[in-house]
Amino acid sequence: MATRAYILIETRVGKAKDVLSALRAMDNVAEADIITGTYDLIALAEANDMLSLVELVTAQVQNVDGVERTITCVAA
């Protein structure tokens, strides 16, 4: 069973659409949407295990130009 997590993402002003496009192009991001509220985007990520999920968030998502902060909520 895959490890799933919801990633809440804050972006720099004016970068939400660019970040959204980058997230949707990632293999392990099943869904991504612009949202209202404290965070700008939410993404549903799936990986084979927790280590792969950590790698996805820290090496890929957090390195997208425009990403300021992430909160990862692992599905139980």
Automatic annotation (TrEMBL):
Pfam families: AsnC_trans_reg. Signal peptide: none annotated. Residues 7-75 form the Transcription regulator AsnC/Lrp ligand binding domain. It comes from the Eukaryota. This is Transcription regulator AsnC/Lrp ligand binding domain-containing protein. It comes from Geodia barretti.
